[in-house]
Amino acid sequence: MRTGSEPTTARSPLRMRFWLSVWGLLWAAAGTALFALAERPGWAIACAVLCLIVMTDLMIVVHRLHQGPHYQPGPDIPPYEPDHGDNTRRH
Question: What is the DSSP letter of 75?
Answer without folding.
Answer: T
